[in-house]
What we know:
By secondary structure, the chain is of the alpha/beta class. It has helices at about 15-25, 45-65; strands at about 5-10, 30-35, 70-75, 85-90.
Amino acid sequence: MRDLLLIVGDEGRDEHLLELTAMARPRRVTVLIENAAREWAWDDSAAGLELRDRLARLLESIERRTNAVVIGLAGSREQLFGWRFDTVAGDDRLPAAA
């Protein structure tokens, strides 16, 4: 099973993230929303609504392009402590496979 951790940061990189995801050919994808406010999930401001709309488009695109299942969202790396992934994409500080 190929588990991918996709790290989502700046909005302008979504197409690049989708390309990286497709190249990894994952079966399951977990999305880490990096640098978002802790309250992003219930923030009803314009920025909060925009982030949730963006994530909805991104998750739908991941599933459509890869046939992978998006199994979850995380708001911080600490939430993923102990999880293991075959591949990490979207974080330029890490190698392509971690």
